[in-house]
Write a structure and sequence with these properties.
single chain; Tetracycline Repressor, domain 2; 2 domains; mainly alpha; Arc Repressor Mutant, subunit A
């Protein structure tokens, strides 16, 4: 973000989210911490959600850059998978408490901060694209090629949730899980490529595609008789 005032507002907001939590922090708190009027805070960011979405976008750009740097030194799919996942952890290494604060809201299916919300669709597509780069030109059936980047994206969402709750020194348990996941992906692809498993692959493709379908709001429940609408 090039605007100095907007950058200061966001920096102070993220610091407050880390300290107080997302829900307990108000836009008025953020404006006071950034030494701007409440109107100015709303001018740059119309909501707290907008502040977090801006953070998501910057973190994704940083991950793209870090992952591509990791790919340059990688030898084969396993190392690229390890690189794309470890580089994401490197990017958010200092934000574990912030992620924990955000996740408490983001798990709400109605939240604009959900990983599956329409408002996060652009960041989600960018993230899937970097996993697609990790797959590269590795030989595999086309249905697996279509499935793998999205499946890896889902894996990385689970990894971030685990990371946010990982109390081990330096979150080493999360790092070990990444290494274990990278180690099993190549043999799993080889096994899944067997012709006899084609029907199962079709089911997996449908299952993962379903997770990426646009979210449709649930119809509102009509008021009970005698209740006001």
């Amino acid at each position: 973000m090039s605007d100095e005032t907007g950058a200061r507002i966001r920096k102070k907001a993220l610091a407050l989210f880390r300290k107080r939590g997302f829900e307990r922090t108000t836009m008025r708190d953020i404006a006071r911490a950034a030494k701007v009027s409440l109107g100015a805070a709303y001018y740059y960011f119309p909501s707290k959600d907008a502040l977090v979405l801006s953070y998501y976008e910057d973190m994704q750009l940083a991950h793209d850059k870090a992952a591509r740097a990791a790919f340059r030194g990688a030898n084969g799919l396993e190392e690229r998978v390890r690189g794309v996942l470890h580089s994401k952890l490197d990017v958010v290494a200092d934000d574990r408490h912030l992620l924990g604060a955000i996740f408490r809201t983001a798990v709400d299916p109605e939240s604009a901060l959900s990983a599956f919300a329409s408002s996060t669709g652009g960041v989600r597509q960018q993230s899937v694209a970097i996993f697609d780069e990790a797959v590269g030109d590795e030989p595999m059936p086309e249905d697996i090629r279509a499935l793998l980047p999205k499946a890896m994206w889902l894996l990385h969402v689970g990894m971030l949730l685990y990371f946010a709750h990982d109390q081990s020194p330096g979150q080493i348990r999360t790092r070990h899980l990444v290494d274990d996941a990278a180690r099993v992906i190549v043999p799993l692809i080889a096994m899944a490529s067997l012709p006899m498993l084609a029907p199962m692959r079709e089911e997996l493709v449908r299952l993962v595609a379903r997770a990426f379908e646009p979210q449709v709001p649930s119809p509102s429940t009509p008021p009970a008789p005698g209740e006001s609408s």
